[in-house]
Amino acid sequence: MNIEKFQESMYKLIVETSTNLPKDVRRAIKEAKERENSGTRSAMSLATITNNIQMADENVSPICQDTGLPTFKIKVPVGANQLEMQKAIKNAIALATKDGKLRPNSVDSLTGDNSGDNLGEGTPVIKFAQWEKDYIDARLILKGGGCENKNIQYSLPCELEGLGRAGRDLDGIRKCILHSVYQAQGQGCSAGFIGVGIGGDRSSGYDLAKEQLFRSVDDVNPHEDLRRLEDYIMANANELGIGTMGFGGETTLLGCKVGVMNRIPASFFVSVAYNCWAFRRLGVQVNPETGEIQDWLYQEGEKIDFAEPAAAEIAAAAEASEAPAVQEAITLTPPITEEQIRQLKVGDVVKITGRMYTGRDAIHKYLMDHEAPVDLNGQVIYHCGPVMLKDDEGNWHVKAAGPTTSIREEPYQGDIMKKFGIRAVIGKGGMGPKTLAALQEHGGVYLNAIGGAAQYYADCIKSVEGVDLMNFGIPEAMWHLRVEGFTAVVTMDSHGNSLHSDVEKSSLEKLAQFKEPVFK
Ligand code: SF4
Predict the structure, then answer these.
(1) Fewest 10 Å CB contacts: which of 1, 89, 136, 485?
(2) Using one digit for the tens of pLDDT, what is the confidence trace for 118-164?
(3) DSSP 146
(4) What are phi and psi for residue 434, nearest 5 degrees?
């Protein structure tokens, strides 16, 4: 095989996967957008999402800053040299990382050191299998941490919140799948796609669940019972009302694929792999002699262009909105006073103009026991691990910068806000009771940005004014960003209100409607 060409083909696959959503996924998002009532926060979020998809496409930049753990599934004809191919894939990964198409995401599990090129023990994941066909089938999925953390595995029989007993039968499986959607809430950047694996052991069950994510959104399950199950879930899971980003709304789930394998009599696992709306998986057919791409997978049908209508719809949604509209957004310019914060309430839309600082897991842990490198009094912390590129003059540029999952900072957030006088934190998915109590006591707000809208938010960042704690690596460092019109929704306020707990409570009540058996 021409291995240089194969490496080039793998580079193209990586770049396309990171920057250009496949057509089957675009179709599902378009349908969701049409279903959503205009004027709601969910409709506004979906408009931002489609705008973001378009921007990523045009800029050839990552759709979401979290480019996840690259996972390849490759089928090769007998005789293909897998060792050479593996080397070429790793080279392509390192190059795509250097070019800002992937975020450096591979860290030493014990020390936290980032390898800087996405290579390391166990990363990327490359799974080879042989087959009888005369071409190479190479597929890639980039699944980020926010949705990966919402994967869940059930061991039947079990008791499920809201649904009661789930037994070792099709109806028990149905309950597990509904519960998996409920427990994810908006934290995996809903609306999402789920892959379900029935049977196997704990590891092969999860493998089977992830395998389902490689199926096309439009395919029909050939197994009659599983087809019924998939149809049932798609028809009912959206009744939970969790909505895009967990803001409440019509669309929570965009796809459900179920697979089955044998198990041993003592175990009965149902494993669910949750994938966010930024469902970045693509595939190619490669000629085993020339190493060149012969065809792209998941690309049947017309390409859906989200260009103009999205911006127009943002305005229309805002105009029709009963909730505060984008035009009515409240401008915040840090440093923010306690009085300004106390005036904000859940549902308000704010636009931030001025300085904000990024802070993720490493920064939060560090700030518990150290002084901050900058004065954070009245400031805004953004839970974000951006994709950054340095130019030849040594200046940093933001390539992708959406919010990361905030709940990871729950043990630290309230203490840090009080210690340094921080007035607002921005992230996604909401935070827990400890942070809510601190917001009330200290005078702070939690702002929910649109998860995955990495291009949209990168566009709001007008300059990078500094960086501290680079020893934590690019995604974990504290970046000083100057932003303009950075839009987010107040989902936790200083009066003890949380949209997240309201939606969780109402979706639990709706979940209970599905308690009675459906499949005998
Ligand atoms: S869209 Fe959300 S869950 Fe998906 S990779 Fe991006 S931040 Fe993570």
Answers:
(1) 485
(2) 999 999 999 999 999 999 999 999 999 999 999 999 999 999 999 99
(3) H
(4) -65, -45
Check residue 325 and give its pLDDT: 45
- 198's tokens: 């029935």
Neighbours of 315 (CB within 10 A): 13
Q: What long-range pairs does 108-114 form, CB within 8 A, spacing at least 24? A: 112/362, 112/472, 112/473, 112/476, 113/473, 114/473, 114/474, 114/475, 114/476
**pLDDT tens across 227-267, in order?**
999 999 999 999 999 999 998 888 999 999 999 999 999 99
Ligand 1 atom 1 nearest Cα: 452
What is the structure's pLDDT at 315? 55
DSSP three-state, residue 444: coil
Confirm or reject: Cβ of 278 under 6 Å from ligand 1.
Answer: yes
Whose Cα sits closest to atom 3 in ligand 1?
A: 146
141 Cβ inside 6 Å of ligand 1: no
Beta bridge partners of 390: 396
Rounded to whole angstroms, how far apart are CA atoms 451 and 46? Answer: 11
Nearest C-alpha neighbor of 181 from the set 211, 158, 205, 147: 147
Give me the phi and psi of 302, to 5 degrees please: -75, 145
Q: Does ligand 1 come within 6 angstroms of the Cβ of 451? A: yes
Cis peptide bond upstream of 124, omega within 30: yes
Q: Is 357 exposed, middle or buried (0-12, 13-18, 19+ CB in 10 A)?
A: buried
Which residue's alpha carbon is nearest to atom 5 within ligand 1? 144
In the three-class reduction of DSSP (H, G, I as helix; E, B as strand; rest coil), residue 285 is classed as strand
Q: Name the DSSP letter for residue 464.
A: E
Instruction: Verify whether ligand 1 is closer than 6 Å to residue 146 (CB atom).
Output: yes
Contact partners, residue 329, CB within 8 Å, separation at least 6 = 349, 350, 351, 487
User: What is the CB neighbour count within 10 angstroms for residue 419?
Assistant: 15
Coil vs helix vs strand at 442: helix
Using the mean position of ligand 1's atoms as its centre, give its distance from the Cα of residue 393 in Å: 31
Which residues lie across from 467 on neighbouring strands?
Answer: 479
Is 188 touching ligand 1 by the criterion CB < 6 Å? yes
Distance 189 CA to ligand 1 centre (A): 6
* Section 475-498 average pLDDT: 95
